[in-house]
Amino acid sequence: MNRLTMFAALTLLLLTAACAADETNTENNANTSMDDMQTAEQNAGDVTNTNDNNSEDQMGDEQNDNGQDMNDGSNDMPDDMSDNTDDDQLPDDGLDSVCDSDSQGTAVGDRALPFTLPQCDGTPFELDAQCGVKATNLILFTGWCPNCRDTIEDVIPARLSNFSTDFEPVLVITQTNSFGEKPNAGFCQQIVETYNIDYPVLYDADGFFEDNYGTGAGNDTQFVLDEDLIIQYRAYRPSDSEVDGIIQGLL
User: Fold this and answer.
1) Cut 0.85: pTM above it
2) Which tens digit of pLDDT belongs to each residue from 103-132?
3) Alpha-carbon span 137 to 18, nearest angstrom
4) What ranges do the domains of the chain cover?
5) What rounded mean pLDDT belongs to the chain?
6) CA 36/CA 45 separation, integer angstroms
7) 167-175 and 135-142: which strand pairing?
8) What is the pLDDT of residues 67-80, one digit of tens each?
9) For 81-94, what is the HEC assignment?
10) DSSP result, 100-128
């Protein structure tokens, strides 16, 4: 082998070694680049996860804080609002009505003094049963009183005809045809049949009205009570038109 051939062979060998080295470096560089990219992606993922976790934690904290604020707000509700329950919507059946009031009397403006008197057949009649009736006309009657007879014969039938069903008369017999004589069930029934009365008729055999309402004999005296049994009118020998006006005003 001459020198030229050896030089060529040596040159070729060097070129081959150089190419091999370049390929190794290129591969190493490529591997390094891939490693760098993976590392970068991993770091980016860590940052993203960290941010997401921080965001979720922050949102959770904000929700907790908002929930706490709402709870605190409900706890700070005024007592008068939190206590506004069915007590304000449903009326008590006890002493809410004036009809059940302990304040009683016999003068205009008073809640009428309650009483229980027998009807002609002996059935007890309680004044409290009139609670809720818009106008109750309480008429005291004696058999010897001409005005009393005119009232139950003419005036009361006219009122029953003119006024609605929210008006109710109640007749109380305090004496018979003889002055000072107390009535009984027989006399009571006689008055009902004589005047064809179909509303409550009571007899006061023990002088309740004379003793408690101060009506004396009880002849020709009238009361008008409203739906709460408040006395709106009381008079001895009343004016029929005046009584009618009071009743009309209550209906």
Assistant:
1) no
2) 799 999 999 999 999 999 999 999 999 999
3) 134
4) 1-65, 98-250
5) 77
6) 14
7) parallel
8) 444 444 444 444 44
9) HHCCCHHHCCCCCC
10) G-S--BSSTTSBBPP-EEEBTTS-EEEGG
